[in-house]
Design brief:
Helix 1 packs parallel to helix 2. The radius of gyration is 14 Å and the shape is globular. It has a 3-stranded antiparallel beta sheet, covered by helices on one side. The protein has 2 helices and 3 strands, in the order αβββα. It starts with 10 loop residues before the first helix and ends with a helix. The protein is α+β, with helices and mostly antiparallel strands and 69 residues long.
Length: 69
């Protein structure tokens, strides 16, 4: 009997998913900080702003996206 397990997304696929859902009028700033950490800031047109720092760029992007959507 076969099982249908979901295949985990690669980091590239996760980034594509976030970028494809970002509205064009949102401000996005990504920076690599010292010690290898990534900093991501997003701001919606209504002024709501969120910032996250994480070990990988995709982790920071996903956390900011979740907070603002």
């Amino acid at each position: 009997m076969g099982h249908n397990y979901a295949k985990p997304l690669t980091a590239e696929a996760r980034m594509e998913r976030v970028f494809s859902r970002l509205p064009e009028d949102w401000n996005v700033k990504m920076e690599r900080q010292s010690k290898g950490k990534w900093s991501v800031m997003m701001q919606r047109p209504d002024g709501m702003l969120h910032h996250e720092t994480a070990d990988s760029l995709i982790e920071a992007l996903e956390e900011v996206w979740r907070a603002l959507r």
